[in-house]
Specification:
This protein is α+β, with helices and mostly antiparallel strands and about 260 residues long. The protein is built from 10 helices and 7 strands. The chain has helices at about 30-45, 75-95, 115-125, 125-130, 145, 160-165, 170-185, 195-200, 205-215, 235-240, and strands at about 15-20, 50-55, 60-65, 105-110, 200-205, 220-225, 230-235. A 7-stranded mixed beta sheet has the order 2-3-1-4-5-7-6, sandwiched between helices. Strand 2 and strand 3 form a beta hairpin.
Length: about 260
């Protein structure tokens, strides 16, 4: 469950995408989306998972998390959330079989402007899908929590989000975040940006090249490519095109670089 190859790089921000088995809409009911977020809160409390943003759709999820140096926090958190969510659903529906795709994808994101753009991409997922006109209308993403920080059941680490975005104050972060989303929503072109979900790393050229060096032989066959959102580390042009999915999908057909969450 939730298997992938472990590529541990401490201190990095990761954009994690995980989809339901065979793209089924197993998260279509509000109660299931809420349970996913409740288990995510449990993971934050139990393991100290640092969450910067999140999005739960009807058939896949996005998470922005930080590896603070303990290599077991993210794997243990993902095993808990994915495992308990799937178990509860299968028990309630008297269903057998896998709930999640076997592998999920992790992309290293550079802090600052690249992190900000990744946040907006996540926030506007359901806008691109045509389900809502603004992310504030979707209850199962981090947009509203960033704009109105909670006192209870807090998921997002507000201080670290402010730090990694590079805002001088949280009020500045909220204002900037709101402005970024409004600009995106106001732009008529809503296209899927596969670099956020299919790359190994996204950021400046030096950031991506450094990730490639850290990965060593595990990055063999991957190229540093300039794209719309900066530079990215991913496979060459032929596999790159093959990863494109349907117009309203936000995860490619195959996650070629993943992170191992096996029981070890």
């Amino acid at each position: 469950m939730a298997r992938a190859k472990r590529h541990y790089i401490p201190g990095y921000i990761w954009h994690i995408t995980h989809r339901c088995h065979k793209r089924e809409f197993l998260l279509k009911f509000a109660r299931d989306k809420r349970r996913y977020l409740q288990w995510l809160y449990r993971a934050r409390k139990r393991y100290g998972l640092t969450i910067l943003n999140y999005m739960v759709t009807s058939n896949h999820i996005h998470l922005l998390v930080v590896d603070d140096g303990d290599r077991d926090v993210i794997p243990n958190s993902m095993k808990l959330v994915a495992g308990r969510t799937g178990q509860e659903y299968n028990q309630r529906k008297d269903r057998r079989g896998a709930y999640w795709e076997d592998r999920y994808h992790a992309t290293a994101i550079e802090s600052g402007s690249h992190l900000a753009r990744c946040m907006v991409y996540m926030d506007t997922n359901m806008v691109r899908a045509g389900v809502v006109k603004h992310p504030s209308m979707w209850s199962f993403c981090g947009y509203n929590e960033i704009q109105e920080p909670r006192r209870k059941n807090v998921l997002i680490d507000y201080e670290k989000l402010q730090k990694y975005v590079g805002a001088e104050s949280y009020e500045q972060l909220k204002s900037s975040h709101r402005g970024w989303v409004e600009e995106y929503v106001g732009d008529g072109e809503k296209i899927r940006q596969e670099e956020w979900t299919s790359s190994i790393a996204v950021g400046s050229k030096s950031f991506v090249e450094h990730v490639k060096v850290l990965l060593g032989y595990r990055a063999k066959g991957r190229d540093v490519i300039e794209g719309n959102e900066g530079y990215q580390l991913r496979e060459g042009s032929a596999p790159y095109k093959a990863l494109l999915g349907a117009e309203n999908e936000d995860i490619g057909l195959e996650n070629t670089f993943s992170w191992d969450f096996n029981n070890e």
